[in-house]
Specification:
Structural class of chain B: alpha+beta
Number of helices of chain A: 9
Strand content of chain A: under 5%
CATH class of the largest domain in chain A: Mainly Alpha
Shape of chain B: flat
CATH architecture of the largest domain in chain A: Orthogonal Bundle
Distance between the termini of chain B: 65 Å
Largest sheet of chain B: 12 strands, mixed
Radius of gyration of chain B: 27 Å
Helix content of chain B: 10-25%
Oligomer: heterodimer
Largest interface: A-B, 76 and 71 residues
Largest sheet of chain A: none
Strand content of chain B: 35-45%
Number of strands of chain A: 0
Chain lengths: 179, 550
């Protein structure tokens, strides 16, 4: 393999390793912009490619997460424009501050542990609440569709989901403290 | 919280949910911006909410992948979804280059199965009346009907003529039939919901192959249930039993209640009560026999050298489990909630709900003896009640609470795990060692854990060494190695005042760790048994008994 091609491939691999090491953080950050789980997943693919292409411009002296979020934000906004959407999004500095909060939750291994706890915590929800989680997150139904299915108002559903997320947060926190 | 009291915080969280849903108008987004800028705690809330949203979607994808894997190859490719277009069939991933082909393939798998799951769901509601609901599926489980066959999923409704199929030894499906009956199908099973149920002589359910555990609530049933296999009809009025269908015969094991059997080959009948079993087949005369036959010393004595604790669960009644090791002062255990356990007719104790089976005193005789030799063996004959027990769920623990222990044998889904405190591990006994996935099954098992004075660790399942490693969670320790599996350090840090508990954990900050299932024997030795000694204990079988017909 020619040296130039080998260097190119190595830089791609380095970039890719970094993306994998921050995959959940990046996906959550993208989700905060595009607000659609499927589009977030597609956009993460595009962000991966863009980070690999731009790898030569990355200064290793800078923290990777901050730089990657900058790339992700550009790509995500382009994705929305590509779909003809211009929704109001949170300010860049707010998004960056939220991204830093996600960084503070720990690296990918820690977030994977958190996901395992989340699975356990979901199992501890009441049956009706588990059903709501399934409809919203497993089947990606909108609040309107869920409201029809469970015969509740959309407003009542927002309140219910807020309580569900609070209960899950509490459960995860307690289990992280002591397992 | 910087001026955000409980009520305004809730309002802010509702704004976040609406924002993530895409339904928050522009002025609402501006308000959310202001609040997030002003209040770090809200930014943490939002970060938490984002992580939960993303990871819940991933759990859904993993769940779909677990239940739909085999059908992928025949499913149509999903159209690419556009944001906000309602329920989402996942589209194919784009080509990223050769170096991410593997990841792309994985994404494609997840995409395909999620679409597949949606596709299956879309056809629901057109079916005939619902007879049953799938509560849980694990592994390769399928539902077949006249219109075709597809992967099964939790909460799926099944109508008449639906056939439930579990493929492979790891597949399990739990079914709620007519609300009053819980059925668990496993072991390459095929169960059909009969459309003619209710007509004279027609069965409700036909088990053609595999293993079926049934729990029927008499009070909620209007009529008797009729189960049919190729060899026998089983008439049930409120009971718990297991059916195992092989090519030549069907075995029925009764846990509780009573059933009437009628051979489909010669018409002979038998009444089966708790603790009995029967085998039906073309050349087998059906007859009730005890599940356990007393055979004192038939298979040779158990190892006694180094034995410091022994519970055989032969009490049969009451709320006391006696230590019959003969070593030192007996460390008897009290059952906190007798209503949550059942003494089994042939010996053993079934834990059915949250209960503490704990010593009143410290387990000091065990602590002293194990500490003296820096070695131990934990042995149990047991039948786990479910593969959904995690935490780990405690089977045996000598501890103070969820975070402080000397040693613990537990269950983490389909693995056995041990946390052992030494000078090389944490106060909680981590890093955790664990058996390979699939080691733990909901059948009678003999599990043994040994750790010798050099630190060498070995698990044995049913008398044979089994693969084990270090759980990835938690802080690594240089004293704990995977190959060979070794927990370094010594037991000098063991605490004298920790008590012993079965089937649960002493209360900690994150609550209890209940374990459900049947306990037949628990023993602790203050040395590591050899493979030969483990084999000897395995051959000795259950205390004073052996399983009949096996």
């Amino acid at each position: 393999m020619p040296a130039e091609e080998r260097d190119f491939q190595e830089s791609y691999e380095q970039a890719f390793r970094q993306v994998i090491a921050h995959r959940t953080m990046l996906k959550a950050y993208i989700q905060a912009i595009v607000r659609d789980p499927v589009l977030a997943e597609d956009t993460l693919s595009d962000v991966t490619i863009e980070i690999a292409r731009s790898w030569a411009r990355y200064d290793p002296a800078r923290p990777f997460p901050n730089w990657a979020r900058g790339v992700a934000r550009r790509v995500a906004l382009n994705a929305l424009r590509g779909l003809g959407k211009r929704p109001a999004t949170l300010d860049p500095e707010v998004l960056e501050a939220v991204g830093s909060e996600i960084d503070a939750c720990g690296g990918e291994a820690r977030l994977e542990s958190r996901k395992r706890l989340l699975r356990r915590c979901v199992a501890q929800l009441s049956e009706p609440n588990r059903r709501l989680v399934q409809l919203r997150y497993f089947e990606n139904q909108t609040y309107e569709q869920i409201a029809d299915a469970v015969r509740r108002s959309v407003n009542a559903l927002y309140v219910a989901f807020n309580r569900i997320h609070e209960a899950l947060s509490r459960c995860i926190r307690e289990n992280l403290e002591s397992t | 919280m910087n001026g955000e009291n409980g009520k305004t915080r809730t309002q802010a969280r509702l704004l976040m949910l609406r924002y993530l849903d895409g339904s928050l108008p522009e002025d609402g987004v501006s308000e959310l911006n202001v609040r997030l800028k002003a209040t770090p705690a809200l930014r943490r809330d939002f970060a938490d909410l984002l992580l939960q949203s993303v990871q819940l979607v991933e759990l859904g994808q993993e769940h779909a992948a677990e239940t739909a894997r085999p059908a992928l190859a025949v499913r149509p490719e999903a159209p690419r979804h556009r944001a906000g277009a309602g329920p989402v069939p996942r589209g194919p991933a784009r080509p990223w280059g050769w170096w991410i082909t593997g990841i792309a393939a994985a994404v494609l798998v997840a995409i395909g199965v999620v679409f597949n799951s949606y596709w299956e769901h879309a056809g629901e509601g057109l079916a005939a009346p619902t007879l049953a609901r799938l509560e849980r599926v694990e592994g390769d489980v399928f539902v077949a009907s006249r219109t075709g066959r597809g992967p099964a999923r939790a909460d799926q409704m099944l109508g008449p003529e639906a056939r439930l199929i579990t493929e492979g030894p790891a597949a399990t499906a739990v079914l709620r039939y007519r609300e009053a009956t819980r059925l668990e199908l496993a072991g390459g099973g095929t169960l059909t919901l009969e459309p003619a149920a209710g007509l004279a002589g027609a069965p409700n359910l036909v088990l053609s192959a595999g293993l079926l555990r049934a729990s029927v609530e008499a009070a909620a049933l209007r009529d008797a249930l009729l189960f049919r296999t190729p060899h026998v009809d089983v008439q049930v009025v409120g009971t718990r039993f297991t059916l195992r269908v092989a090519r030549e015969s069907t075995r029925v094991d009764m846990d509780e209640g009573e059933v009437l059997l009628a051979s489909r080959h010669d018409g002979r009948t038998a009444r089966l009560r708790a603790g009995e079993y029967a085998v039906a087949g073309q050349t087998i005369v059906i007859a009730a026999r005890p599940q356990f036959e007393r055979t004192p010393a038939a298979a040779g004595p158990r190892v006694r050298d180094g034995l410091v604790l022994l519970y055989t669960f032969l009490e049969g009644r009451g709320r006391l489990v006696r230590d019959v090791s003969g070593f030192g002062q007996p460390l008897n255990l009290s059952i906190s909630h007798p209503s949550e356990i059942a003494w089994l007719p042939a010996g053993g104790l079934e834990v059915r709900g949250q209960v503490m089976i704990a010593s009143d005193q410290a387990a000091q005789k065990v602590t002293d003896a194990c500490r003296a030799g820096n070695a131990l063996t934990i042995e149990a004959w047991l039948t786990p009640g479910s593969l959904e027990q995690e935490g780990p769920s405690r089977i045996v623990t000598i501890s103070r609470n969820t975070g402080s222990r000397n040693v613990m044998l537990g269950q983490e889904a389909d693995r056995y795990v041990v946390r052992l405190r030494t000078t090389a591990t944490t106060e909680n006994g981590t890093p955790t060692t664990q058996t390979a996935p699939g080691t733990l099954r909901c059948t009678l098992q003999h599990i043994v854990f040994t750790r010798d004075a050099s630190g060498r660790v070995q698990y044995y399942l049913d008398g044979a060494p089994c693969a084990a490693g270090i759980a990835p969670e938690g802080k690594a320790s240089p004293g704990v190695t995977a190959n060979p599996l070794r927990i370094g350090g010594d037991f000098s840090c063991w605490q004298n005042d920790y008590r012993l508990c079965l089937a649960n954990e002493f209360l900690g900050i994150s609550g209890y760790r209940p374990w459900l299932g049947k306990l037949h024997l628990v023993a602790v030795y203050s040395r590591a048994l050899s493979h030969e000694e483990v084999r000897r204990n395995n051959a000795a079988g259950l205390p004073g008994t052996r399983m009949a017909g096996k």
